[in-house]
Amino acid sequence: MDPERAAPLLEVHDVTKSFGAVAAVRGVSFPLFGGEAHALVGENGAGKSTVVKVLAGVHEPDRGSIAVDGEVRRLTSPAVARDAGIAVIHQEPTLFPDLSVAENIFIGRQPLGRFGRVDRAAQRAGAVRLFDRLGVRLDPDRPARGLSIADQQLVEIAKALSLDARVLVMDEPTAALSGVEVERLFAVVRALCAQGAAVLFISHRFDEVFALCQRLTVMRDGAWVSTDPVAEVGVEQVVRRMVGRDVSALFPKEDVEPGDVVLEVDGLTRRGVFADVSFSVRAGEVVALAGLVGAGRSEVVRAVFGVDRYDAGRVRVAGAELRPGSPAAAVAAGVALVPEDRRQQGLVVELSVERNATLTRLGSLARLGLLTGRAERRAAREWTERLRVGYGRLSDAVGTLSGGNQQKVVLAKWLATGPRVLIVDEPTRGIDVGTKAEVHRLLSRLAAQGVAVLVVSSELPEVLGMADRVLVVHEGRIAAELSRAEATEESVLLAATGQGVSAA
């Protein structure tokens, strides 16, 4: 049936939700049609997560309505939303690790046989039928513990189907998936749509949105901006609507004449991980480590910073050799590392914004061994304001901030140390396009101030837009070194897959 002529399977109408004086969502409306994947996009803090929670029955709107099959439904709890046929597939599913896949699918609704016992054969057969509908193979008897994120998501989708869900909300489902896993998830989404389901797909990745979705809704500052068929809009137009301004330069690179070598890596080797890695970064230079996932890029920068030990080689900062395996020595020499996993390695999510922003300087802020709250707040406010971190109060837990603002807090923590060398691993993963532009602008500005910047990135546009030189890593070795003029998508990908020329 043509969605343009069909009635929506679900319709969000004029939904508004406030928390205290903060209006998280204001007058948001859009339809979800059966047989379609519908993208919901916007910057961090645009209100997407609040819309998801309204649909999931976690929050009731202050105003507006949700209609399913034309009937207005009050989604007062997750159970009510589930009964209405709405299921939310989160970025990181929460399964019972010691139960089997089939037991997780039918938890609380196990088929019963004689004498009221669980009919395990029927449960297993039901799981197999659900996976057949999805077109995937997954062993119903294996424990959930140890499943990849991608397989956990499939279990959650199968559970949703077992509950007769017809509206599936997928909140950043591909953030932790590999390329092959993303393709498999897309095949599952297309199969669901072919069976008449409506899928609300939330992602920061425009290539995925345009490859998968038929319709797209843009939100900005908690408000609805537009809803259009994907075929009628382009990336530039969507970006402009998301950020409320014309983003003519997502990669605001400043031209800087590089200075002396600040970071020098010579013959770095860790058996089975990377071998004979040598490169240098000059003051004012942005150097990118590019390559496929698993090539060893993150492992190299962790070793440079001293988080991981290495078997051979040397690391020098401003000519002085760093003690291996000592992050403290790296920090003392002026090296800072913003890790890939900001929540696990870059932040203490239970602590406040101000404490996280000052963790690297607690000693220098103390007077006679005592740290005052006033000194900590003053130091935290200086850098959070310079980076335009969005927060309610400095005393709020940093875990309550959006992904982009958490990334800025990690940057603030390290920039406050005045580093000579800034190493940033996946600086814009999981953050929106407007915040990406801010991070790119910040890195470029730091380079212009003489900082040596080393970036690990899996996003080719970011690599090509920001780097003065690109070092391509293939299977733990530097496969090619490309100048800004030489670096193209083709040349980087050829080297990343082992087809490019070796570095001179």
Give a description of the structure.
It is a single chain. 33% of the residues lie in helices and 24% in strands. It is α/β, with parallel strands linked by helices and 504 residues long. The chain has 3 domains: 10-95 and 147-243, P-loop containing nucleotide triphosphate hydrolases (Rossmann fold); 249-334 and 419-504, P-loop containing nucleotide triphosphate hydrolases (Rossmann fold); 348-418, no CATH class. A 6-stranded mixed sheet has the order 6-7-8-3-9-10, with helices on both faces. Strands 16-17-18-13-19-20 form a 6-stranded mixed sheet, with helices on both faces. A 4-stranded antiparallel sheet has the order 2-1-4-5, covered by helices on one side. Strand 7 (167-171), helix 6 (179-194) and strand 8 (198-202) form a beta-alpha-beta unit. Helix 4 (120-134) crosses helix 5. The N and C termini lie far apart (59 Å). Residues 10-246, 256-500 form the ABC transporter domain. Keywords: ATP-binding, Cell membrane, Membrane, Nucleotide-binding, Repeat, Sugar transport, Translocase, Transport. One of its GO terms (molecular function) is ATP binding. Pfam families: ABC_tran.
